[in-house]
Amino acid sequence: MAIKKSSAPERRAESPEKLFPLLRRTGHNSDTLWPQQVDLLREYATKRVNARDLAIELPTGTGKTLTGLLLADWRRREGKGRTVFVCPTVQLVRQVVAAAEREGIPVVDLSGPSKNWDPASRLAYERERATAVVAYSAIFNIAPKLTTADLLVFDDAHAGEQYVSKAYTVSVPRGLHSSIYADVLDAIAPMLSTERHHQLTQNSPGAGTHELVDAISLAQADTLLPALSRALERFSTVEAADKPTRDSARDAHFAYAAIAGHLAACTMYVSWSKIEIRPATPPTFENALLASATQRIYLSATLGTSGELERAFGRPVIRRLARPDDAPAPTSGRRFLIFPHLVPDVDPDEFTKELIERVGKSIIIAPSNPAADAAEERLVPDGWQIYDKDDVEDSLDEFAEATNAVVVLANRYDGIDLPGDACRSVTIFGYPGVTNLQERFLASRARAAIVSAERVRSRLVQGIGRCTRGPRDFALVIISDQETTTYLSRTEVTDTLSEDLQSEITFGIEQSEQSADGVRENVDMFLAQGEEWFDDAEDELTQLRQYATQIVPAAAQALAAAAKYEVEAQEAAWNGDWIAAAEKLNLAAMELGQHQNARGYRAVLLFRAAVAMDKAARDTGDEGRGNTADGLAQQALEAAKPATWMSSLLPFEGREVSEPSPQLVSAARRLSVYVGKVGSAQKMRATFQTMFDGLSQIDHKQYEPALTDLGKLLGADAFKPSGDSRTDSAWCWDDYQWITLEAKSEHNTDGPIGTHDTQQVNGHLKLVAEDRKSPIPPISAAVMISPRTIVKREAIVIAADTSWRVTPADILALANLTERLWEGLHVLKNISSASDREQSIISLLREHHLRPEDIMDLLTTTRIGEV
Question: What CA–CA distance (Å, rounded) separates 865 from 492?
């Protein structure tokens, strides 16, 4: 018999948590809300119902999505207007729609192109009969097709940056768009040194230059913008047979349309393989759908405390909704972490493959497509079925039912739910420190990784938790690469994580350092989840958790305070108010002034302020503003040391070049003499060949003399000190700058850097000071050269602030740059007077970015114990 439909209106509830028992019965509803959900829903109703931007944090697997759906449905029933639930991917849209339907919450799927939307579903949303569930791309594009809404709920907001910024980032991959890449490079060539432009135009870049990123604030290059615009407009005419090129051109075309009238308010990041043009924070104030919403809610499992959410969504202030202080912390499932690179006497890749076979399947997460390809080649057991992103775009059901299978995904640390028996293993392959050129520049050139540290931690936390979606879930987590192993060995990293995860990481490191057979036995015991595991392992994990305390990073509050001014500065620059932009950026920099570990990002903000003020000075012809710009730039230079990335962008147009540093003068004087003695071009080539031969060796007896030769070719007083425990080569630019180099060329790649090697490096500068009877200059570094990138926890703890590490490949890259420098230096031997050569040598060292301060920058990007 047909059921007659009632015309009664939908029930309302006093508050969102009271809506839950009123939902339609489906036979699959949850029995009840969890305490943390009730707590947050009550807090929302009493304190934050009128907040414009609101963030809500719930750990993975503790009901975040249902909480957001209840808030949306409650506001819709209250008659406040349309509601939209936003997911990172289409696969998650499908997942959320299914979850809502199980709970009896009216929703409609409006993912994909608007022309394909079901008319009835669209009408249900527009008439406020159901919440629309869409992907981020439906909101962040140049012409959103959704009718305006009262509420936007962003799920997995911690991952929002990549989805939001994509709408405003013009990406020019060299491999897909070589001619457009060349045109863009030609357009901004005046902003690059002749040598740097040469590197970028070569078909085969020199070692060490392939991943180097330059940042150009386009406000400083406003006369070049018409040519740049013409180059970028070519994306609208790209026709290609292959899908990757077509898709890339389409994305670039739409992103360019979003920023076309505001290029001066953007930054161009230039590398050999790709160029990206984007604003520092997304100009979401221009997005009518986002800006008109009465409320925007950001759901996250890891909100962070450093302002990353504000920067990611371009909102100056986002309020937080926290659980009551006396509410118990929700828990997720159990993870057993294994670090194959710490297991003695095994091949890490083969051991990872063996562990995956032991479990029967795994999800493998890599930070990029090339890394995913490498993981597929190195870690997947022979004959196993491999799923990629296209195979699981709509659903994970097929993989969940499969056996002897892996799913390999690039940069998908969130948005994948594999609870229960669906999968019991996650493999992390590759450190997720950088996913775009802005992040790479900040981390490597500007020494400002602190600003994206929350994002990196969030990616790893999310990735580790892909298979533990509920409190009873359990999963083996394999950290299969060297860099992530070192990263998670650092206490300053793990101390910021939850107490549960801290204890799991510590336990995992300790268990991994025993024999391979011991690891195998423990893995089997964990997978069995029997009495042995609960009697022994869980007791140890409980003890470790009791001593764990989660801390907030030291500079987090300052970074959060700065974020407000950064977002406001971007809006001011977007609207052409360069003075306001400079003032806001200066205020942001002031917030970071007292934090030593935030100096790199402070330098970035100060330089952006200087560029904005210089733009205002040029636009108005105001000399006073020009002087202010110079002052800001000088502050930026001082804050950035030892980084030198901005030196090639200064002085501003019409200003005088700064005086050379004492160490630069020292190098020029020494090189001016060396040039006169080096002999013919043939002899010079022989000198370099001998050096390269030595630097290509493992034997320290050949490697160490080559190091000293390299130092001399860079203008240092380079020598091998005599005596016990001395450095293998010391490079001294008089008493202005010293670098000691300890060659561990005989290290194998798989072992860890230990305490003995670290202690040795720590003491080298003091011994050079004793030999030279002179105090250590403030600008000095002790450098270890080793192919190893894993560092034992004890070595991380004892490493001095002046101790750094590089690889033999880094030294070879420096040698290649030096050889290129000497092609120019050798010509100067025709100038008869050594003193007359000095000024030309200073210019060449600046042009090639091989001043002593540049060399310091190149060799001190990674502290011992950092990634």
Answer: 11
Q: Is the pTM of this model over 0.70?
A: yes
Q: Which two tokens stand for residue 627?
A: 């002087």
Q: Tokens 């009664």 appear where?
A: 8
CA distances from 132 to 11, 123, 152, 657 (A): 19, 10, 10, 58
Tens digit of pLDDT for each residue in 418-434? 889 999 999 999 999 88
Residue positions counted in the chain: 867
- Give the pLDDT band (50/70/90) at residue 330: low
Tens-place pLDDT, residues 613-667: 999 999 999 999 999 999 999 999 999 999 999 999 999 998 888 899 999 999 9
Distances (CA, A) of 702 to 151, 423, 607, 728, 787: 68, 51, 43, 11, 17
Full DSSP string of 736-786: TEEEEEEE-TT--SSSPB-HHHHHHHHTHHHHHHHHHTSPPPSEEEEEEE-
Give the H or E element holding residue 335.
strand 334-338
Give the span between the Cα atoms of 600 and 17, in whole angstroms: 45
Rounded CA-CA distance 550/547 in Å is 10
Share of the chain above pLDDT 90, in %: 78
Q: Tell me, what's the pLDDT at 218?
A: 98
Residue 843: CB atoms within 10 Å:
14
CA distance 600 to 610: 15
Q: Do strands 131-135 and 107-109 pair parallel, antiparallel, or not at all (unpaired)?
A: parallel
User: Tokens 């302002």 label which residue?
Assistant: 307
Contact status, residue 259 vs residue 146, Cβ threshold 8 Å: no
Q: Give residue-wise pLDDT tens across range 667-686.
A: 999 999 998 888 888 999 99
DSSP state string for 505-541: HHHHHHHHTS-HHHHHHHHHHHHHT-HHIIIIIHHHH
Q: How far apart are CA 261 and CA 575, in angstroms?
A: 10
Q: What is the maximum alpha-carbon separation in the chain?
A: 108
Q: What is the CA radius of gyration of the chain?
A: 29
